[in-house]
Write a structure and sequence with these properties.
The complex is a heterodimer of chains A (about 300) and B (about 210). Chain A has a single domain, classed as Formate dehydrogenase/DMSO reductase fold. Chain A is built from ten helices and one strand. Chain A has about 300 residues and is an all-alpha fold. Chain B has a single domain, classed as Alpha-Beta Plaits (2-Layer Sandwich), CATH 3.30.70. In chain B, strands 8-1-10-9 form a four-stranded mixed sheet, with helices on one face. In chain B, strands 2-3 form a two-stranded antiparallel sheet. Chain B is globular, with a radius of gyration of 18 Å. Chains A and B meet through strand 1, helix 4 and helix 8 of A and strand 2, helix 2, helix 3 and strand 6 of B. Strand 1 of chain A pairs antiparallel with strand 2 of chain B.
Amino acid sequence: MVHETLAATNAVVTLDVALPDIFWGWYVTMNMWAKSIGTGLVFMLFLLLKKNSHEMSSLRTPTLIASFVMMNIFLLFTWLDLHQMWRMWHIFFYPHWTSAITVGAWMATLFVGLEFVMIAVMILKKDEKTFDKLLFWTTLLAIPVTLYTAGIMAEASARELWQMPTESAQMILAATLSGSAAMILLGGSKLSDESKKFFGSILGLSALMAFIMYMSEYIFGAMKAEEVAAVLHYVKGDGEYASMFWIGQWVAFILPMILVALSRVSNSSSILSLAAILAIAGLWVVKHVWLVIPQLLPLS
Amino acid sequence: MQLGFLVDLHLCMGCKGCEIACKVENEVPLSTWRLRVKYVDVGTFPETKRTFTPLRCNHCENAPCERICPVSALHYIDNGIVNIDKERCIGCAGCVMACPYGAIYIDPETQTADKCTYCAHRIASSMMPACVVACPVEANIFGDLEDPTSNISKYIQANTDVQVRKPEKGTNPHHFYVGASQAHLNPLASKREEGYNLFNNITTLPLGGHH
């Protein structure tokens, strides 16, 4: 705290025009949430291929279609969030390659294109070999597609809270969390108990790692930067977003961790499914809070 | 040529002439500002003073807005100005997220990003920016930072307390202040309290007659 905020000096803003509030709101939350599920499902399908490929036969097409739908939801909300949405084509005709937005838009488009080809390969030709070959490249591409949003957040120099490499780790964990959760729900009885346990472990560990990272920032973030401290006030004590922050942490991470453990003890698929539903729903809340709070801080 | 701005806060009296001149010159829509003057009251009665800080785009040498813009709508021009092509802008608001100075807004009429351009159109005709012309105390000093004989260079040489906003961001602003305290430059150095505002709360006309 600088000396102007001491009682003796007492600096108070007495005239200033309205400052912009939240520019990236729930449309962007939808963007991040849907993309996490979309790429996460591809990661999980690839893991299933490597671990229990015999369980793939009835899951290739539905998993890819689910991922494709989520990726299109992500693209739809990205597009809706533009103030000049009919100029979207500028990204492809006037690309600026230092921007993570540009790089991401190109990669996401390629990713969705690849997914479309994979679905077509399965529906039209039922060619599992080609599908599995394409899945390798799609999984590789899913990594930067998952990460590029963290790149955008890192390039947002005004928002000190969004740091690299923390955000990139959170993006990957969001994808493994929501991807494994979606796979558990989508796989249902088509997955063996072993595979369910495997995806349950990914879900539980992703929740644990993400929770540790959020708590680390919550507790220690304020000790390094004045702006981070000011932003974290919104989720501490009686802060504007404190309740929402904790609802998100409980629903996305804490409860799924407990439920995954319980499902293992009781060998219950329904408890695992509940953990998966909570993780997917809670992730939206977690992402939304972290997106919004830095935008509440006056920058000038 | 690298154009830059310096505001001598010893001279600024908060008349907002620059703010109005900018509004008129650039037809800045209602509820948005390319340049604004912030008042911060410092001290405890009777030892109080009011500070004035004109705030505008810093035309950073390493501009985060230019870097994040996906379509190069925000771009450098040869004289160092970070300009904006509103026809190219897609309104993604990436620049709004990236600017550490809160200097960029979305124009409600064009739905594109907008900000101070140092009146690039006037400079192209060898005219000073509108805010420089309007300032009654010549607190705005504008000129070529690469020319050691320019007014701005001389001012920077002559004063020891030349500062920029948020130097830790590594943006290398082309906008300087003389006579600034933390209350002027650091938004976290002052409180924003409900009710402490020179504006009153009468903002809307009640429909259906006066009450």
